[in-house]
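User: I'm writing a short report section on ligand binding and want a predicted complex to refer to. Could you take this sequence and fe (ii) ion and write out the structure as tokens? A short remark afterwards would be nice.
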Amino acid sequence: MKYKNTQGFDHGQADRIGVLVTNLGTPDAPNRGALKTYLREFLSDPRVVEVPRALWWLILNGVILNIRPSRSAKAYQGVWTDEGSPLLIHTRDQAKALADKLSQQYGEQVVVEFAMRYGNPSISTAIDRLCAQGVRKLLVLPLYPQYCASTTASTFDAVAEDFRQRRWLPELRFINHYHDYPPYIQALGESIKAHWAEHGRAQRLIMSYHGIPKRYLTNGDPYHCECHKTSRLLAEYLGLEKDQYMTTFQSRFGREEWLRPYTDETLKALPDQGVHEVQVVCPGFSADCLETIEEIGEENRDYFLHAGGKRYEYIEALNSQPAHIDALLSLVQQHLNGWTLSEDYDGRKARADAYTYPESNG
Ligand SMILES: C=CC1=C(C)c2cc3[nH]c(cc4nc(cc5[nH]c(cc1n2)c(C)c5CCC(=O)O)C(CCC(=O)O)=C4C)c(C)c3C=C
Ligand SMILES: [Fe+2]
Ligand SMILES: [Fe+2]
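Assistant: Sure. The structure tokens for the complex follow:
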């Protein structure tokens, strides 16, 4: 059959709204084999690596997938928990907390699933589950505050690819970004203030975002601007002067130039410039993951202290903090506008006049 059919449909089924919460994805296990599978899927995405396909295929299969999986597996072993990968656990918990809030408000009318762009649970599996529960309107919330083609647009590609193979498409809404959304800035600001209340302030607040190749910016990707806007709004919220905070970019991959200034080089240089105390926050990561726990929490701490720094603190991602969930809730509510029927919700009535073909069972 060319198209995937909706499973479990019956005419008495209630029409529902689905919220699909997504993040990047993570390997199934912290070992070489799982890393190879994960990295192959991730790094084959042309939204992530914009290099001519034939050339990239040779580099990826000839070099990267032979070297990187073992190295990355070691790094993942250092952050892995009894429940699994931190990114997966946080995303699952965030979706659950959001689902609880939405069900308090809308009962069974709104259902939530979470998915990963690469790895499991896949976006297609989650859309299958939503459709089987009667979802006819779908809101996708990629947990990337700043729009980037490598992440946000790639998530859209995965939804579109699923839709290409599906018979009965739900109505679709897609949240592009929320880098300047006041409740998100407030949640970030309050989490930093709570850290200050407990530990005091350091000389400088470093706002570190995942990098991308500089070429993507010059080709028109708004990511760099959105990161800077988040930083400016956050600094305004906290009442910071220009010399009290910095925006930097981390997690470089490959040899070409990425967005500058680089987080690692900045931290290595700061002690010589008289900055011996820093606090680092990662406002582009909605959940702690390898890139924050290991790279910011450990690797960059070492660089800073070895360069003569005296005090280094990483301020955790918002994860499932109540203020974060509330910010996501209000973001979702804004995008559900015109869709929710909360008071007179009666999905059965909506389908009561459906005509049943005698020869079909659906
Ligand atoms: C190869 C190029 C990469 C681009 C471009 C890129 C952009 C990008 N990534 C995130 C968020 C995350 N990336 C994570 C891990 C990760 N990223 C890359 C490469 C690129 N990312 C790799 C190869 C890896 C895997 C880890 C490794 O082998 O070093 C993660 C963490 C995943 C986890 O399991 O914990 C996140 C989150 C953003 C937001 C972004 C562009 C804006
Ligand atoms: Fe990445
Ligand atoms: Fe910019």
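A remark for your report: The domain at 182-315 is CATH 3.40.50.1400 (Rossmann fold). The mean pLDDT is 94.
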